[in-house]
Design a protein that fits this description.
heterodimer, A: about 260 residues, mainly beta, Jelly Rolls, 2 domains, five-stranded antiparallel sheet, elongated, B: about 80 residues, three-stranded antiparallel sheet, about 0% helix, about 20% strand, globular
């Protein structure tokens, strides 16, 4: 029955797997274990996740007895919801020959919220709210476009992308657009639809919450895009018609909601 | 750390203020005069290639895990 002590043979162990994007995080797995002779032993094990959202796992041998309860918390660092996802399983065997026998804990951890067995519900990494991130992208060289990628094992909901284009003195009517592709093939192009002439600085804002609008006083153009969820490897790319070699994009600033997605 | 990509000359911070890492990828070659843009030779892409990740090996250098190293980076002020 759910919540009953989980019997362990001497071959069984606890495996903790984490997916994390925040720096300085240490996870601590704690609980109580009833040994074969009836004594109860508390345990505490530490684990340092990777910071690139790839899986990091560690196995803790438990011995012969029954697991009474277990909790998992971020004992160092300050991950926010959407940044540190963890799974605790009962496994048999070691290394590559491990067989998963049952999952105990699955969900996001923060520095103030913990998960435990037998209490916490299982959670998918893409359900519920993610972490809101403001990201400064690459400042491209003059004459180059902006390119930003959704990191491996992340899912982004794009809330806004703002970037400033400074044009050189060459006479040409530029038209800036944002394209989004799946890593290879473009599926969305959102042009500003306004001529950007020589020697002019204009700020472009693409957002699902924007209307097409031009603010003359500070040369800002807002351009609507669909509300999109983008998996790892998808790319955000500017494309300026009639771009000149001296035209210069500044570093884009992105606002995204992010989840772990392995 | 602020670096310059030696392939595309883009400049970026490797660590962001929110405590996360930034993963740079070079843009395609610019398309002047109406020519279509082309992939950049030697493009750097710092996103993790899952096929290259050695699970459980915390000593694996980042450069061994990314999609493409390109011409590398240099630190800038």
């Amino acid at each position: 029955m759910p919540g009953a002590p989980f019997p362990f043979s001497g071959e069984d162990a606890l495996r903790l797997t984490s997916f994390n994007s925040a720096t300085g995080v240490v996870l601590t797995l704690e609980g109580r274990f009833e040994n074969h002779d009836g004594t109860i032993s508390p345990f505490s094990r530490a684990h340092t996740p990777n910071t690139d959202r790839t899986a990091a796992s560690v196995t803790f041998p438990m011995g012969d007895g029954r697991l009474l309860d277990v909790q998992l918390r971020a004992s160092a660092g300050a991950p926010r919801r959407g940044q540190c996802f963890a799974i605790v399983e009962v496994v048999r065997g070691l290394e590559s020959s491990q067989v998963s026998l049952g999952a105990l804990v699955q969900g996001y951890l923060t520095d103030t919220q913990r998960r435990g067995w037998p209490a916490s519900p299982f959670e998918l990494s893409t359900e519920g709210p993610g972490v809101i991130r403001s990201i400064a992208g690459t400042n491209p060289a003059a004459g180059a476009e902006i390119l930003e990628t959704v990191p491996t094992n992340a899912r982004w909901r794009l809330l806004a992308l703002m970037a400033t284009l400074v044009t050189d003195a060459n006479a040409a009517n530029r038209d800036a657009a944002l394209t989004i592709d799946d890593g290879t093939t473009v599926f969305l192009r959102a042009p500003a639809g306004q001529n950007h002439i020589a020697s002019l600085t204009t700020r472009y804002v693409w957002s699902p919450h924007a209307q097409r609008f031009t603010i003359a006083q500070d040369r800002t153009i807002t351009i609507p895009i669909p509300d999109l969820w983008l998996p790892g490897g998808f790319r955000l790319n500017t494309l300026v018609t009639n771009l000149q070699a001296g035209d210069d994009w500044g570093a884009p600033q992105l606002l995204v909601e992010e989840w772990i997605e392995d | 750390m602020r670096v310059e990509c030696l392939t595309c000359r883009g400049v970026y911070n490797t660590d962001l203020p929110d405590g996360t890492r930034y993963f740079h990828a070079c843009p395609p070659l610019p398309a002047f005069g109406g020519a279509p843009s082309r992939p950049r030779p030697d493009a750097r892409n710092e996103n993790i290639d899952r096929a290259k990740v050695r699970r459980g090996d915390s000593s694996q250098p980042d450069e061994d895990r990314i999609i493409a190293v390109g011409r590398g980076v240099r630190r800038v002020p």
